[in-house]
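Entry type: protein chain
Record version: 2
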Amino acid sequence: MTRVLVVEDDPQLVRALVLNLQARHYGVDAAPDGATALRLAAARQPDVVLLDLGLPDMDGVDVIKGLRGWTRVPILVLSARQGSDEKVAALDAGADDYVTKPFSMNELLARLRAAVRRTEDTPAGPAATLVETEDFTLDLLAKRAVRDGKDVRLTPTEWHLLEILVTSPGRLITQKHLLNEVWGVSQSSKTNYLRVYMAQLRRKLEKDPARPRYLITEPGMGYRFEG
């Protein structure tokens, strides 16, 4: 049974989440504040965490940092905060996804299933070096991209950017993280670099670069690879 830790201080929302999750055969624990959440996470070892950012005793970002000190469990943030700054802060702290309130239960459950599936599907070690989609194949070890049976030439920078995205499929990677990893901390505000290189990657790999299927932009936040 998949165990879910719900961290939320709104009793009505907690009740709705618990009922919907239990009806789908998830095991559920609920915490009304950050301190309880961290204690329950250590004791119950959940498979996924649903976390509200606006908690009574501490900011949800601090809960994420506390969890990331010892576990890679998927964390889905639930929050009424609309600004991209708050979303980016949560993602940079280690959250895997972000759902803005109010949300549909079906969307939340789909995101939750995807987060659990990514954890289960992630192979350990070298087996993760081959990425296959309907339109192209990437051999990360050989640095080889093939589309329609032909090799696609990618620059070292394009490869670096692509590797970060495809090795965390479905996860939203922030602009800041990508810029730091590929170009270094001194360039962490140069989001135009990302726009240029992502456009190049889409042109080389996507069937319809104007409507990408694999290399997805989350406006104001970052990018994700959907395999």
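Comment: The first strand starts at residue 3 and ends at 7.
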